UniProtKB/TrEMBL annotation:
UniProt protein name: Photolyase/cryptochrome alpha/beta domain-containing protein
Cofactor comment: Binds 1 FAD per subunit.
Gene Ontology biological process: circadian regulation of gene expression; entrainment of circadian clock by photoperiod; nucleobase-containing compound metabolic process; response to stress
Protein's organism: Morchella conica CCBAS932
Photolyase/cryptochrome alpha/beta domain ranges (all copies): 105-246
Segments crossing the lipid bilayer: none
Signal sequence bounds: none
Length: 605
């Protein structure tokens, strides 16, 4: 009896196993709320979740298992209400009721990811509202910041970022104090209690209006929807405003289909045209006006709120804290100082130097964007004003290129709003969730080598050690190590996404998720998934003299010439042994073949 031929999928699987046997094996995300109370206003059309197929990657303390494919496609097709649409609907449906709510004794601005006074949309509106009293006696403006240790845990916020937030809060409090505006800070242990606590505090302070800038992650959008509706029932107007992006999400669409852009280049072209025809989007708002002199008397208990210590799980050693404070000064004043220095000294060469790992040709402003101590508006407007033209796509190539890089932050937030399944542990392209990432002990060994900077690939180890030492990594290096993790080591890219969020001082969900999706080929990038970075070529191209490698990989500082990029292959065996440096944990060409098979199998190609 003739043997049956194996299916193409099974044949590819056996081929991959054969390669693995022949050669040495290549060694965040936010989900929807876990409580029914927080999701009751959202109609579910299909079962929303699959089983937890991610091997414990999802924080089940806060989130359900992986989103189902059916639900992801309902979001994509518009058959399920997106959280950003739910927010718009809540604002529209409660508009009349909210507009009828009279000004109270106070107006509250709720600081979240916007730790600055200048160019803060909601803060400016709150300040204006406080001064509109018909009686001639202005209301007092109260600023508020609520800290939830559970939010830090659920959002994978790194200790370095928590430290930066707390340092920025101190500066913000001092600046507000000069205007007789109190910054009330409170720790809310349970994240689910934040909704009610906001309304309780507003009621205690006689504030009928609370302002905040929108946050675009699923949890935060749904939280705000609930506060809007609960607020109206209690006679409190909760107003949420767009502030994070130069062009608000949903404003740009393709001319052919009227849908949101999923590819950056045409999106950026349209973004640029929009800014040119709507120059008001780059107008920066002034800081809030000072409070009446009686404010300190009326709200004496709200001034000088102590800045709490970081939760134990997010704390730093005194040396780490000192190093970070020196390397990344906090607050908006430091942000503007760094922006000014970059514009005057380095932006002209930005297009040439931004990918050179040893040059530090980047602005190093990502920490300020991620924590809201500088707005994208302020940055783009300042760069435009430093140019020889008011056009964003003309003049200095360095300025043009930098503006396009800042715009990526807008783009990824637009993606997050229109394709919210990326916030639920699902790839932008849901089909890529079918990739069978190895879960063997060897795979764990490889992930450990990657995260500790001991892979034996100098450019990878340099980048990872930079991250572990400074809580930051050069952008080009991020792309290299991300591609290496998922396409050389064959480790689920979501593990790398989570690791970055847990360690980066500039961790931002939308940008981090977008970058990992791009590098793994599962995201918005139009290039095929089979683009696989060769780490050796990346090393030789972007660190030609090995300066970056030698800065972070101490074992290799004595190596001269091209051997720095591949010491195991380019030094004789005895020289290499003396280095005390590990052998490469993977062969790139072998891994590339296996990766290709894995992706093809998952996609049915």
């Amino acid at each position: 009896m003739p043997k049956r031929r194996a299916s193409p999928t099974k044949a590819r699987t056996r081929k991959a196993q054969k390669i693995l046997t022949k050669d040495s094996p290549p060694k965040a995300s936010l989900e929807e709320p876990n409580t029914a109370a927080e999701t009751t206003s959202f109609e579910l059309k299909t079962p929303e979740y699959n089983g937890d197929s991610q091997g414990g990657l999802i924080l089940r303390k806060y989130y359900p298992p992986e989103l189902s494919d059916e639900c992801a496609h309902e979001y994509i097709n518009g058959d399920r209400q997106r959280p950003i649409e739910a927010l718009k609907a809540a604002l529209v449906e409660t508009s009349n009721a909210r507009h009828q709510i009279l000004l109270g004794r106070s107006v509250v601005h709720w600081f979240r990811g916007d730790l600055r006074l200048s160019d803060n949309t909601a803060l400016n509106l709150a300040s204006t509202m406080a001064q509109t009293s018909e009686s001639g006696v202005n209301a007092t403006l109260i600023a508020m910041y609520l800290i939830s240790p559970e939010d830090f845990e659920a959002h994978l916020t790194s200790p370095a970022k928590v430290d930066f937030i707390l340092r920025s809060l101190k500066i913000l409090q001092q600046d507000l104090d000069k205007l007789d505006i109190p910054l009330y800070i409170e720790v809310v242990e349970r994240r689910r209690n934040i909704q009610n606590r906001v309304l309780q505090l507003a009621s205690e302070w006689g504030a009928n209006h609370v302002y905040a800038n929108a946050e675009y992650e699923v949890d935060e959008l749904r939280r705000d929807v609930n506060i809007i509706r609960k607020g109206v029932a209690r006679g409190i107007c909760f107003s949420v405003h767009h502030d994070l992006c130069v062009v608000k999400p949903g404003e740009l669409s393709t001319k052919s289909t009227g849908k949101q852009f999923s590819v950056y280049t045409p999106w950026f072209r349209t973004w640029t045209e929009y800014v040119h025809t709507h120059p008001e989007v780059l107008e920066v708002s002034p800081p809030p006006a000072a409070n009446p002199s009686r404010t300190r008397e009326i709200h004496s208990t709200l001034f000088n709120s102590p800045i709490p210590s970081a939760p134990e799980s997010k704390s730093l050693s005194s040396k780490e804290a000192t190093d970070l404070a020196s390397r990344f000064p906090a607050g908006e004043h430091a942000a503007h100082k760094r922006l000014k220095k970059f514009l005057s000294e380095r932006i002209a060469r930005y297009s040439d130097d931004r990918n050179t790992l040893s040059e530090r040709g980047t602005s190093m402003l990502s920490v300020h964007f991620a924590n809201g101590t500088l707005s994208a508006r302020q940055a783009v407007a300042a760069a435009r004003d430093a140019n020889t033209t008011k056009k964003l796509n003309a003049g200095s190539m360095g300025i043009i290129t930098w503006i396009s890089e800042v715009a990526w932050r807008d783009f990824y937030k637009h993606v997050l709003c229109n394709w919210p399944h990326v916030c639920m542990n699902k790839p932008f392209k849901p089909a890529y969730a079918k990739i069978k990432w190895p879960t063997t002990p060897e795979a764990e060994t490889l992930f450990e080598a990657w995260r500790t900077g001991r892979t034996g690939i100098p450019i990878i180890d340099a980048a990872m050690r930079e991250l572990l030492t400074t809580s930051h990594m050069h952008n080009r290096a991020r792309m290299i190590v991300a591609s290496f993790l998922c396409k050389d080591l064959l480790v689920d890219w979501r593990r790398g996404e989570r690791f970055f969020m847990e360690h980066l001082i500039d961790g931002d969900f939308a940008s981090n998720n977008g970058g990992w999706g791009w590098s793994s080929g599962t995201g918005v990038d139009p290039q095929p998934w089979f683009r696989i970075f060769n780490p050796l070529r990346q090393s030789e191209k972007f660190d030609p003299e090995g300066v970056y490698i030698k800065q972070w990989v101490e074992e290799l500082r004595g190596i001269e010439g091209k051997a720095i990029h591949a010491p195991f292959e380019r030094l004789d065996i005895e020289e290499f042994k003396k280095l005390g440096y590990p052998k490469p944990c993977v062969n790139h060409e072998t891994a590339r073949k296996i990766c290709t098979i894995m992706y093809k199998e998952a996609l049915g190609k």
